[in-house]
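To assess whether the prediction recovers the assembly geometry, we first specified each molecular entity separately, as shown.
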Amino acid sequence: AQSVTQLDSQVPVFEEAPVELRCNYSSSVSVYLFWYVQYPNQGLQLLLKYLSGSTLVKGINGFEAEFNKSQTSFHLRKPSVHISDTAEYFCAVSDSGGSNYKLTFGKGTLLTVNP
Amino acid sequence: DAGVIQSPRHEVTEMGQEVTLRCKPISGHDYLFWYRQTMMRGLELLIYFNNNVPIDDSGMPEDRFSAKMPNASFSTLKIQPSEPRDSAVYFCASSPPGGYGYTFGSGTRLTVV
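The predicted structure of the complete assembly is given in tokenized form:
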């Protein structure tokens, strides 16, 4: 079974500051990794994904994440945040080796960007 | 593409009533997923379909919950009878083959009073 741990439930930052949202996963098989963002009263939107290849993945809205297999981590970063980045962020994992495409999500991290 | 379409956006019902949530996936997506989101439990996978066939329903909480996918463009999640603890946001998502990430609908916020 797979699991995802998002180490911070809330992260407050000031506008234009850098931010890192942490994600660790547990799996006995090779994985695909994802970050989703959820704005208030909306569905989840895919930010970026790691499938294979380069461990540094760039996504939308200036976000990037780095896959670290030895640390079983997939932390999300942005060098300078905006007020509009305030949202909940979810890390997710799926099995890359078979036909099981279900995603297991972390509990989410609420990013609050203050002026 | 209009994306994944869910209806209704909000539903308020009385305990004991039947509730039906609807989902239209993205055309060409072979996988359809139903998730439930609550503050306490986060996002939980209830059931998913591949080519209209239920593959894994181990997340369906009770026999009161049922899901169908009669064709490639429509799925329903039914709760009968509904209970206050079923109050949550229910999301539908679809994915093309390969598991390369889902597209979520906007969700249905269900309140059972």
